[in-house]
Amino acid sequence: MYNEILNDFLEVSAERMPKLAEYKNNNDMKNYAIEVHALKSDSKYLGFTKLSVMALEHQLKSEENNYKYIDEHYEELVKETNSKIELAKQYLN
Question: What's the whole-model pTM score?
Answer without folding.
Answer: 0.93
